C-alpha cells in the first residue's frame, strides 16, 4: 500500500514538473530546438 502511494505520488510529481518545464520551453523564445529532444529522452524513463 505504501509502495503504491509512493509510486503514484512520484508519477504525479514528475508529470507536473515535466508539464511545467514543457510549457516553459514553449513560451521561451530563446530556447534551442536541440534541447527539447534531449529533455524528452531524459524524462521518458520516469514517465513509465
Uncertain stretches of 5 or more adjacent residues:
none
- The gross shape turns out to be elongated
| Helical content band | over 70%
The overall average pLDDT, rounded, is 74
Q: Count the DSSP helices.
A: 2
Fraction of residues in β-strands: under 5%
Secondary-structure element series: HH
Work out the number of β strands.
0
Biggest sheet overview: none
Structural class: mainly alpha
Number of domains: 1
Radius of gyration: 13 Å
Distance linking N and C termini: 19 Å
Describe the 3D structure.
By secondary structure, the chain is mainly α. It has one domain (2-47). 81% of the residues lie in helices and 0% in strands. The chain contains 2 helices and no strands. It has helices at residues 2-27, 35-47. The chain is elongated and about 40 Å long. 0% of the residues are buried. The mean pLDDT is 74.
Features:
0% strand; mainly alpha; 48 residues; 2 helices
In short:
The protein has 48 residues and is an all-alpha fold. The protein has helices at 2-27, 35-47. It has one domain.
Secondary-structure topology with pairs:
Blueprint: H1 2-27, H2 35-47
Helix pairs in contact: 1-2
Amino acid at each position: 500500500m505504501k509502495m503504491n502511494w509512493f509510486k503514484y505520488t512520484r508519477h504525479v510529481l514528475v508529470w507536473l514538473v515535466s508539464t511545467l518545464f514543457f510549457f516553459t520551453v514553449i513560451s521561451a523564445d530563446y530556447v534551442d530546438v536541440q534541447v527539447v529532444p534531449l529533455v524528452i529522452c531524459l524524462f521518458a524513463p520516469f514517465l513509465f
